[in-house]
């Protein structure tokens, strides 16, 4: 391989500008690195916010993409866990300090020094990371996951963000047999939450704005489906869930949702509204409820999630697109016009 290696990619040249084909350089494969031939890259809502500068200034050109699956093309001399030809994935982070308590506990996403995001972040060598809308990526082997047979490779891509983001809180707060779990929102995150919660054995209810996707929700594994635009929903379901997983980024009436929890129930946000939320603390203390948050998952748990999904043959519902459709796909994601995740076929990158 020429060093550094030029590879095809799609990048945003500046905030608010459409993505364009480009060539970027990947670093030399170090002793603990894996060179991945990217096969598929999912489009996450975060990609759009980041390239548009909604979450603060970025370094451009910026190649997004943190739902990456592909095949190992080369490994460094010190890599033992991955071999050429293996099916692998990379999610939202590609590095962390490895030394702090959180890293040592396998919670690299909460690294005390800050995890290194897969794109638009300063890596520990000082370079800016570039993501998966690209034909190849070089990643430290400790942040490369195995994608077992049992799940289609393209459908596995969204597991690396949407899958782990929902799997982690579902596991932590005990979704399983005998537990009543509500999933708020049936989008990229919500549809994976429904599949995973169902596979874990929980009784699953979807709370969506309307009944438009009811048929889908039930097909994906939900037992019940309610419209949140109907005020009767909140009366009818008061006190009926052990866990409410909110996947929606829009602001919500927190008290109304907390009222759906049984005694000792927990509501967990994985969606992040841009504005602060307010709540009446009586909504918590009146039934010993908790309100929590959760962000993706650590490397060991992400591997556990991939193994679980492969065992249960769970992948995302995807619409596979060519690179020339990325900008259209962004508009459609913003309009909630996708069922339920766009995945880029990286063979079309040039
Ligand atoms: Zn994401
Ligand atoms: Zn750390």
Automatic annotation (TrEMBL):
Pfam families: ADH_N, ADH_zinc_N. Its EC number is 1.1.1.2. Keywords: Metal-binding, Oxidoreductase, Zinc. Residues 16-344 form the Enoyl reductase (ER) domain. Gene3D superfamilies: Medium-chain alcohol dehydrogenases, catalytic domain, NAD(P)-binding Rossmann-like Domain. GO terms for molecular function: alcohol dehydrogenase (NADP+) activity; zinc ion binding. Belongs to the zinc-containing alcohol dehydrogenase family. This is alcohol dehydrogenase (NADP(+)). It comes from Nocardioides panaciterrulae.
């Amino acid at each position: 391989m020429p060093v550094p290696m030029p590879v095809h990619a799609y990048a945003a040249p500046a905030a608010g500008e459409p993505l364009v084909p480009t060539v970027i350089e990947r670093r030399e494969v170090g002793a603990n690195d894996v060179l991945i031939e990217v096969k598929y890259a999912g489009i996450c809502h975060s990609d759009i916010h980041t390239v548009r500068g909604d979450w603060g200034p970025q370094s451009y050109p910026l190649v997004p993409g943190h739902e990456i699956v592909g095949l190992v093309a080369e490994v460094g001399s010190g890599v033992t866990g991955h071999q050429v030809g293996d099916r692998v994935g990379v999610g939202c982070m590609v590095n962390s300090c490895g030394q702090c308590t959180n890293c040592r506990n396998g919670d690299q996403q909460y690294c005390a020094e800050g995890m290194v995001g897969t794109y638009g972040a300063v890596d520990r060598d000082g370079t800016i990371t570039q993501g998966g809308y690209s034909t190849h990526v070089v990643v430290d082997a400790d942040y490369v996951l195995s994608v077992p047979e049992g799940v289609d490779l393209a459908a596995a891509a969204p597991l690396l963000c949407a899958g782990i983001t929902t799997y982690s809180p579902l596991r932590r707060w005990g979704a399983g047999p005998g537990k009543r779990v509500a999933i708020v929102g049936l989008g990229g995150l919500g549809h994976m939450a429904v599949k995973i919660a169902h596979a874990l054995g929980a009784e699953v209810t979807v709370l969506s704005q309307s009944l438009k996707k009811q048929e889908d929700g039930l097909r994906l594994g939900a037992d019940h489906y309610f419209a949140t635009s109907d005020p009767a929903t909140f009366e009818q379901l008061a006190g009926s869930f052990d866990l409410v997983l909110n996947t929606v980024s829009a602001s919500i009436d927190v008290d109304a949702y907390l009222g759906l929890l049984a005694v000792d129930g927990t509501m967990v946000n994985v969606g992040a509204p841009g504005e602060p939320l307010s709540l009446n603390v009586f909504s918590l203390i009146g039934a010993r409820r908790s309100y929590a948050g959760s962000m993706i998952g650590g490397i060991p748990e992400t591997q556990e999630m991939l193994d679980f999904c492969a065992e249960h043959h769970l992948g995302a519902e995807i619409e596979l697109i060519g690179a020339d459709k990325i900008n259209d796909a962004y508009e459609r994601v913003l309009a909630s016009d996708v069922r339920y995740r766009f995945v880029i076929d990286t063979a079309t990158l040039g």
